[in-house]
Design goal:
The chain is of the alpha/beta class. Helix 11 links the parallel strand 7 and strand 8. Strands 1-2-3-4-5-6-7-8 form an 8-stranded parallel β-barrel, surrounded by 7 helices. The protein has one domain: TIM Barrel, CATH 3.20.20.60. Bound molecules: 3-hydroxypyruvic acid and magnesium ion (MG). The site of 3-hydroxypyruvic acid has 8 residues, from helix 9.
């Protein structure tokens, strides 16, 4: 079974927290993998990450216990083939609008006769040919998560989730709020209501559902609402919020007085 799908099925362990990796850096990907995050999304939709970076980031993550998911830039059979060849085995598809589009996503990930994935003898996916069973085993080991990001897709969520091969859904609150005419307002009550409804509908149909949270409090709230997994921000987001907090403290008058007696040379910087 695909390791990410298996982790989602392990309800006892609680909802796994992940983060987006947008910095296109294998070093950062490896560091996040060593930080304790259970899983992370290599984001090839909204970052400079291309095939070479995906390959190198997967190599780096492979040295850590963290489970990688790769978000493909689009539901495109050729791009999907290249990303699978690079060794990705769990894919996140943005903007899936219908059951037909979900079927197209699944087909792109399956070798014939089930699908249309092209075959190459020396891909990283087959350990450069060393995995003799690769072509027979690969179809059963791919995990697919599809993103629901518009009201049209929300209407279809049960049909999309029921497509054989779809393992989980993920609500993208940024695009969802934009397509609801509430640009930049993922926290708007109307958007939050749609998220809560989706969680209820997916619980009823037994489909794991996840979404994006900007803070740990929001992540906890989503878990309480029934979300099965949550993405906390991104590597860049976590870096920038920590940088901004540090600068705000530095610039805040009276910060010295509040600071107490910190270690002037921290053991890790
Ligand atoms: C979105 O919010 O639209 C995303 O794709 C990421 O969560
Ligand atoms: Mg989106």
């Amino acid at each position: 079974m695909n390791p990410f799908v298996a982790r989602l099925a392990d309800k006892q362990a609680g909802p796994p927290l992940g983060t987006f990796l947008m910095s296109a850096s294998p070093l950062v990907a490896e560091a996040i993998g060593c930080s304790g995050f259970e899983w992370a999304i290599v984001d090839a939709e909204h970052s400079p990450i291309g095939i070479a970076e995906i390959t190198h980031m997967l190599q780096a993550i492979g040295c850590t216990p963290m489970l990688p998911v790769v978000r493909v830039p689009w539901n495109d059979t050729v791009i999907v083939k290249r990303i699978l060849d690079a060794g990705a085995s769990t894919l996140l598809f943005p903007f899936v609008q219908s059951a037909e589009e979900a079927e197209r996503a699944v087909r792109a990930t399956r070798y014939p006769p089930e699908g249309q994935r092209g075959m190459a003898g020396l891909s990283r996916a087959s350990r450069f040919g060393a995995l003799e069973n690769h072509f027979r085993a690969a179809n059963d080991n791919i995990g697919i998560v599809v993103q629901i990001e518009t009201p049209q897709a929300v209407d279809q969520i049960e049909k999309i989730a029921a497509v054989p091969g779809v393992d989980a859904v993920f609500i993208g609150p940024t695009d969802l709020s934009g397509s609801m005419g509430l640009y930049g307002q993922g926290g708007h009550p109307d958007v939050q209501q749609v998220l809560a409804d989706c969680a209820g509908r997916c619980a009823a149909s037994g489909t794991p559902i996840g979404t994006l949270a900007g803070t740990i409090d929001a992540a906890r709230a989503f878990a309480r609402q029934g979300f099965d997994y949550v993405v906390l921000a991104s590597d860049l987001g976590l870096l920038l919020s920590s940088a901004r907090t540090a600068l705000a403290q530095w610039r805040s008058p009276g910060a010295d007085a509040q600071a107490g007696a910190p270690d002037p040379v921290p053991p890790r910087y």
